[in-house]
């Protein structure tokens, strides 16, 4: 099969498109056919590629990155039931997503309705899982006011949509270019950067009940200023925030399940939820997809169509 192999830590030029043996489904596993399907590109993979997380995620070269896919089941391992070859699925594979085939646990996959494209589906798993994991820690109640820092990205926009459905007032920080997009999702947009605390207070004079930080970039202290302390603040991006008493919504990307995905997939199938796709790259342009992801300031998700 074709796969993009990372040969060393560093820039995107260290990816090499190669022919490698296709994985086989072992006992209790399902091989997911990714050919002519789609893969989500995530900032975590950019950090792994650069070697910034080598202690947390040891990497043996050559390595195939990625774990977020949409595709069809191609092969069943012994003892697997409840799914069949040919089923459309989305979810998390056990690494190696930048390839035509990858292996996944059945519990990490959810069914994909025919009405949702593979490209749209590949944008959903990480955004849906991470936003729901973080919001569960915040324990948001109907009618409250919540700030989402980094609201225009994939995870941030997913959190905004889930909160708005609960009659929560959402203030979303983003660049000015994304303000109309956030208004369309039902959020109150505020420009990030110096003075953001004052701008948020002006937008919601009654105060802020909770803060979800998706983007990091030093927002932790701003969140504490808004809340008057570290309670009811959760970050998905600032690994130094726990030193300030802020909760970090940690998740192991290699032990994720699809338990929280079906309700979001159902909403997406009915037109009630979507993660915007900033750009779809062809499979042979994965290095370019990584370069764009590393630049940041995206609206939604980068997706690679495996053709």
Query: Which geometry do the CA atoms define?
Result: globular
The level of helicity is: 25-40%
Number of helices: 9
The major beta sheet can be summarized as: 7 strands, mixed
CATH architecture of the largest domain: Alpha-Beta Complex
- CATH top-level class of the largest domain: Alpha Beta
Do you know the CATH topology of the largest domain?
Answer: Quinone Oxidoreductase, Chain A, domain 1
Descriptive account of the structure:
With 307 residues, this protein is an alpha/beta fold. The protein has two domains: 153 residues, Quinone Oxidoreductase, Chain A, domain 1 (Alpha-Beta Complex); 122 residues, 3-Layer(aba) Sandwich (Rossmann fold). The protein is built from nine helices and 15 strands. The mean pLDDT is 92.
What brief labels describe this structure?
2 domains, 26% helix, 6-stranded parallel β-sheet, 26% strand, Quinone Oxidoreductase, Chain A, domain 1, 7-stranded mixed β-sheet, alpha/beta, 307 residues, single chain, Rossmann fold, globular
Summarize the structure.
The protein is an alpha/beta fold.
